[in-house]
């Protein structure tokens, strides 16, 4: 069954007779370097296990002018993987895809770009995908250039994500969203932040002062000091977000000594409970305003993390929100934070 055909490229569903071709491709070290790893050549048993028994995946063969040249698969991203990637139930229909061109003489001819463009069109127009994701390994810069050319953008770094040739490799989560939906995705961050601030402000105000200020140990932060740390996080990340937006080049981010910042500001002694809550609220309202000004292009801008890794502004904002949730789990417990995520 043919799914789509365009510019001489055709994608059809995998058939039983394709197994020999898969064995041929996946025993070629040149292909394995980019797909399963050169230490995992496939025999017929492995091909049958990996490509014919998984029914949640739509497995397909790529053809060029009626010649079989590679393999592509797509699948709805399951709830567990959605959570790993940072997507919720309200993020719509999300599909993942993976592929390889198994004939090396078809490399570096622009075929990969046409393939990805055609598959994206099929998934978004025919299957009504809201988002398409892939997680290529970070070292595979050639593939990443193709994906970015086709409209994918880096979202976040997935450290030690995939076992490949004897070690766990870092991967990029990359995403494609139709243009009219991307703007809505961008606005979602400011909406989420404003929601969390309003929700957590009410929860903090309901805590007894004694509980809020109690230190669990001499070297442990009180809940009031944790909120102070979140103020420091807001100050540092506000500056990062603004610098990245205003820069035409990747910004190198500086770290900060969170323990010394909390000590220096004297959050336990110098602030009343209402004052520390109000400071945290106002700092985050300011950040939410900045997020409202960011464009799709801004969110795709790169930055250099304090540890030397690379990330996008999109990843940085998402990480800021998750850092906030993490500390509110310490302050309030897990259930209120889950209610906040669900919008209750």
Automatic annotation (TrEMBL):
GO biological process: response to antibiotic
Domain N-acetyltransferase intervals: 9-175
Keywords for the protein's UniProt record, in alphabetical order: Antibiotic resistance, Transferase
Protein origin, superkingdom: Bacteria
Keyword Transferase: yes
Single GO term (MF): N-acyltransferase activity
The keyword Transferase belongs to this UniProt entry's keyword annotation: yes
Descriptive protein name: RimJ/RimL family protein N-acetyltransferase
The organism's taxonomic lineage, starting at the top: Bacteria, Bacillati, Bacillota, Bacilli, Bacillales
């Amino acid at each position: 069954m043919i799914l789509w055909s365009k510019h001489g490229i055709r994608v059809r569903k995998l058939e039983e007779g394709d197994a020999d071709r898969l064995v041929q491709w996946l025993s070629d070290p040149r292909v394995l370097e980019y797909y399963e790893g050169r230490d995992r050549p496939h025999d017929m048993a492995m091909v049958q296990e990996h490509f014919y028994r998984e029914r949640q995946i739509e497995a397909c063969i790529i053809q060029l002018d009626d010649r079989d040249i590679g393999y592509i698969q797509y699948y709805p991203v399951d709830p567990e993987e959605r959570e790993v990637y940072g997507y919720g139930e309200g993020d719509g229909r999300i599909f993942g895809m993976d592929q390889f061109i198994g004939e090396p003489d078809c490399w570096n001819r622009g075929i990969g770009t046409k393939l990805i463009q055609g598959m994206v069109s099929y998934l978004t127009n025919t299957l009504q995908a809201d988002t398409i994701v892939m997680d290529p390994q970070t070292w595979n810069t050639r593939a990443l250039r193709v994906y970015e050319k086709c409209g994918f953008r880096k979202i976040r770094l997935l450290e030690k994500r995939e076992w490949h040739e004897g070690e766990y490799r870092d991967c990029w989560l990359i995403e494609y969203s139709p243009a009219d939906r991307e703007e809505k995705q961008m606005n979602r961050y400011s909406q989420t932040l404003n929601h969390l601030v309003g929700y957590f402000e009410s929860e903090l105000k309901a805590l007894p002062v004694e509980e809020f200020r109690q230190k669990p140990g001499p070297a442990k932060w009180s809940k009031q000091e944790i909120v102070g740390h979140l103020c420091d996080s807001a100050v540092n990340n506000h500056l990062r977000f603004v610098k990245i937006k205003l820069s035409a080049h990747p910004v190198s981010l500086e770290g900060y000594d969170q323990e010394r910042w909390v000590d220096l500001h004297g959050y336990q002694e110098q602030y009343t409970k209402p004052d520390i809550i109000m400071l945290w609220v106002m700092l985050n309202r300011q950040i939410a305003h900045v997020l409202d000004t960011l464009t799709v292009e801004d969110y795709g801008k790169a930055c250099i993390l304090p540890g030397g890794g690379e990330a996008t502004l999109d990843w940085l904002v998402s990480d800021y929100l998750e850092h906030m949730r993490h500390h509110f789990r310490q302050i309030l417990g897990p259930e209120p934070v889950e209610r906040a995520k669900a919008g209750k």
